[in-house]
Amino acid sequence: MAKTYVEPTLIDRIRADYFSSRMDTAMTTVFGALALWVIYNLVSWGIVNAVWSAENRDLCAHGSGGACWGVIDSRWRLILFGLYPYEEQWRSALACLAIVLVGGLSCVPYFWNAKRITALWLTGFVTFYVLMRGGYFGLTPVFEQNWGGLSLTIFIFAATSLLGMPLAIIFALLRRSELPVIAKTMGIIIDTIRSLPLLSIMFTFAIVLPFVLPDWLTGDKLYRVIVGYALFFACYQAEIIRGGMQALPAGQEEAAKALGMGYWHRIGYIVLPQAFRNALPPTINQFVITFKETSLVAIIGFFEVVKSGDAAFGNAEWNFAHVEVYSFVALIYFVFVFALSRYGAYLERRLAVAER
Q1: Does residue 33 form part of some domain?
Q2: Is 163 within 8 Å of 227 (Cβ atoms)?
Q3: Total H helices, total E strands in the chain
Q4: Which CATH number is 319's domain given?
Q5: Is residue 129, in this structure, part of any structural domain at all?
Q6: Which residues does the chain have with pLDDT short of 70?
Q7: 36-55 per-position pLDDT tens digit
Q8: Backbone phi, then psi, for 248, in 5-degree steps?
């Protein structure tokens, strides 16, 4: 009589994975105890013995044994909004909320269309810019040199993505052109830019470019840096998209040609949708890297969220609370990056189901 298969229980899987031998049992015990010790100390430092209010700052100075979150209570506006005028910071908050809302709506399948997703992001970005810059609808103008904190980080990321993604598609198409001159020239440009450090590109666009451009073409330093960053993003993303295109069976595009489809119809309806599906994991990874590397702009004088964090403990009152400030900044980065990664995982699962 055949034996009936029994699904292993959770206890069975744990025993098989972590306690199947003496060595596995010893390693599980040691590292489990170490993990519990680390968790216990973090909870004790960050929650149980922590000082949460700026009014109790003296407890931090007298060694409470816990985190001094009072610095966040006192300086959170500086971290989130930087040098933005205090009485206008509601605009900066609404601008950040607009971009977050656009990101959330991008997860809705209704917007998974080139025209809709483009219109959505352009609308969100314009709303963000109008709120931040002012000068319209009775809003007081606030110039770019007074932008800072999380809002500046989000602005750089959104602008780089909006400008860089169309460039990446164009670069990828030019590199796979049937004309050797165009393909090789584009290849040299992409490989050259990818071989350079991002910081050197930012520095060149921020500092060096004004010396070789006429005054009317120079523009604000912030926008020059965004253009340089978008160019860097586009070169990396172009290779990701080109890799997705190369994964397509050659017969699909040939069949589209045989049916009489024009070049742009083949690219728009056959090649690019499948290329983006194939290149989804590295594309999400590229967005994550782009968001994290916005912190590099602090080196060339911008007051983004990390630089704002430095300023939050950069006075005599809170100069001892750098760990707490950096922990708060790290939490901000974690929230955005984790949301991007989870969205990428959701898309992969949904597309995998659609392929079945």
Answers
A1: no
A2: yes
A3: 18, 0
A4: 1.10.3720.10
A5: yes
A6: 1-6, 61-64, 352-356
A7: 999 999 998 888 888 888 78
A8: -75, 140
